[in-house]
Design goal:
Helix content: 10-25%
Number of domains: 1
CATH superfamily: PPM-type phosphatase domain
Number of helices: 7
Radius of gyration: 22 Å
Structural class: alpha+beta
CATH class: Alpha Beta
Order of helices and strands: EEEEHEEHHHEEEEEEHHHE
Largest sheet: 6 strands, antiparallel
Length: about 325
């Protein structure tokens, strides 16, 4: 509506500023952990931000991922050692993804995690372009391990590194895989090295179905922190495949998410089952993943992929 002046002219009304948004408060699950302002990591960790998130949709699939620095690393001025990456495969409309958790005993594991994800995506996209039916994940893992060896050689000024030297610098877990659209439902194929994990979340009942063995779930007789990560490539490689139904979501995460999730029948499982009923905004996923719960202070990464029939992106 325009407002008339005495001379007959009119002026549009001044736009009113929207109300101030309410700041997001950190989500608390059970007893919260300590609250403090995060401290900066070392001066050469400027390429590893505290928090990263990403999200987009193809005609068939919706992807969200986030990775956040844990309270322990925030307090002790250490960088986030998790990484997560995803890319579309143009000719099929599928998604290639990788999630990695740098091993804390490795001196530069944050870079190992990032490079393992990058190398895995490069190789999966290349192999998928040659054979759109199946990806050779042993080839993918070996390619990622070779990238870590090359990185170590560069770090050692050209000296050929021994396997122990590569691990001492860049050891990391890895879950890498693809989701391929199919008329009968998207087909997920993935492999796992180390103690990161993957689940299918059934939105109809809120249950989590692990795709790999759990170190904390009911299938684990003893809880173990022992990890055999990249650059070691086990043969045979631990891999699996599954087809998603319209009411299921693929989740891939590091142990910073897996440990508080457990079997998925507690408060953390209920929180994520409710919040992931439809794809959230990427920034909200990062906020959600940064929940506060006593004793759980590790970095957390989570990648989620929905069949498009459940996509209601906000």
């Amino acid at each position: 509506m325009n407002f008339p002046h005495r001379d007959g002219s009119t002026t549009a009304p001044l736009a009113q500023a929207p109300p101030d948004p309410v700041p997001w408060r950190r989500i608390t699950v059970g007893a919260p952990g300590p609250e403090f302002e995060a401290r900066p990591p070392g001066q050469y960790s400027f390429d590893v931000p505290d928090t990263e998130c990403d999200g987009w949709s193809t005609p068939h699939l919706t992807m969200r991922c986030a990775t956040v620095r844990g309270a322990k690393h925030r307090y002790y001025r250490q960088p986030r050692q998790d990484a997560a990456r995803a890319a579309v495969h143009e000719s099929t409309g599928g998604i290639a993804f990788a999630v990695a958790d740098g091993v804390s005993s490795a001196s530069e594991s944050e870079f190992g995690a990032v490079e393992a994800c990058r190398a895995s995506l490069e190789r999966m996209l290349h192999l998928a372009s040659r054979d759109q039916e199946q990806v050779n994940f042993l080839d993918v893992a070996q390619h990622a391990a070779e990238r870590l060896r090359q990185l170590a050689q560069w770090r050692l000024d050209g000296k050929e590194p021994e396997a122990g030297e590569v691990a001492g610098l860049y050891a990391t877990t890895l879950v890498a895989g693809t989701v391929r659209p199919d008329p009968a439902g998207p087909v997920v194929e993935l492999c796992c090295i180390g103690d990161s994990g993957a689940w299918v979340l059934d939105l109809s009942n809120g249950r989590y179905h692990p795709l790999f063995g759990s170190k904390t779930g009911s299938d684990a007789l003893l809880v173990s922190n022992e990890v055999t990560p990249l650059p070691h490539v086990p043969d045979p490689l631990d891999g699996t495949s599954v087809r998603l139904s319209p009411h299921q979501v693929l989740l891939v995460g590091t142990d910073g998410f897996a440990d508080p999730l457990g079997d998925g029948d507690g408060q953390v499982g209920a929180l994520f089952a409710r919040q992931l009923a439809v794809p959230p905004a990427p920034a909200w996923l990062a906020h959600l993943l940064d929940f506060s719960r006593e004793t759980f202070d590790d970095d957390r990464s989570l990648l989620a992929i929905w069949p498009h029939t459940t996509a209601g992106a906000q």
